[in-house]
Amino acid sequence: MPIAPRERLIVALDLPSVESAEAMVARLGDAVSFYKIGYRLAYAGGLGYAQELTGAGKQVFLDLKLHDIGNTVAEGVKSIARLGATFLTVHAYPQTMQAAVEARAGGLRILGVTVLTSYDDNDLKAAGYDTPVKALVARRAEQARMLGVDGLVCSPEEAANVRAIVGAGMALVTPGIRPSGAEAGDQKRIMTPAAAIAAGADYLVVGRPVIAAPEPRAAAEAIVYEIAQQAGKET
Hints:
11 helices, 8 strands, globular
């Protein structure tokens, strides 16, 4: 089924407290229907807030990047499934992905994180990998497909190649989205919303360009408009 343009934008609530997140969600109103909760907010009461969001009809992406022994991952996934979230991230290591897939329930969809968008080839080399980013992303994408993972988180720069590997059945979620003129910040592999959709992304994760904007709602609506324009070109 086609995804509505508004549902393709996931706004990252990278904020210090539930109160600040509530204020931002109120400012965004019906301009945004999908939110990401990562470490910062999750560790400040954000898991309980995730239930409030889902209860209010919003979709939630819990970006917790689970990675541990299989049993620990599985039990964590079972607990998270009770929150009503749509997406949960795990690091795309085969044992971790397999444990998460086997434990998912209640409509929770597992996303494998291939290589963080703040990493480049030099960062991987420093971490002990002898494989460039593009090759490692491709290998993890193929492993995820074979294991039945629901989708992948990848840089928009890798989206086209990953789509060719996994086909149309897996969701591709791309952080590192920066509207034209926005600062890159700590992201190294970035793309505009239209370019990411054209490359094969299903969902775009946007944080600072929305939540740090003088008018967050207007910033979100501009991104949704750009998504809709690009999607219209492809139909």
